Amino acid sequence: MWLRHPWIATVHRSLPSFGPNQLRLIEGVMGALDAHVSITENLGLMAILTGYVEGAVREEISWAQEVRRSGLSESEWMTRSSPRVHQLLERGQYSICTKIATEARQPHLSRDDQFRYGLERVLDCIAAALPSTAELPMSAHRRGTTNGTGRPARSRRLSSI
Predict the structure, then answer these.
(1) CB distance 152 to 124 below 8 Å
(2) Whether the Cβ atoms of residue 40 and residue 144 lie closer than 8 Å to each other
(3) Alpha carbon of 105 to those of 61, 70, 90: distances in Å?
(4) Which residues of 20-48 are buried (b: 16+ CB within 10 A; e: fewer)?
(5) Whole-angstrom Cα distance, residue 41 to residue 120?
(6) Average pLDDT for consecutive 10-residue bins of the chain (161 residues)?
(7) Which of 4, 30, 55, 151 ranks highest by number of CB atoms within 10 Å?
(8) Is residue 106 within 8 Å of 2, Cβ to Cβ?
């Protein structure tokens, strides 16, 4: 939706809207976790998910705007920037930038694959926040109670969602 309507990225939203599409989104997305975590935990996890999606889409929109502004395609921009990157690598001053340029796989993925890679990590984080089904009865999840440690026990799987 954001890519079809890039102007949305320029809108600063300080308060939630409660239009029918927003309400359907809340019900669908948060409904997936409702039986598994307290509503407070659900809100936090959804903030992580929506923050990732919004950030990724804003970055993609920004790239598209830069391509239009410069008249260069993304690959042309990368080719044009290559001498500067090589210059920085030869200096050896920036070890992390060197690792990114020489070892990192993610910057060389397609935009879709980059998004998917990041989304998988976000979903892994959400999965780690879910209590295992054997640890808490569903009614305890809904009340937001825990297993006595002050925090719900953790699980690594989103298979029940």
Answers:
(1) no
(2) yes
(3) 22, 26, 20
(4) eeeeeeeeeeeebbeebbbeebbeebbee
(5) 19
(6) 80 76 87 92 93 91 88 86 91 91 86 94 94 58 45 42 41
(7) 30
(8) no
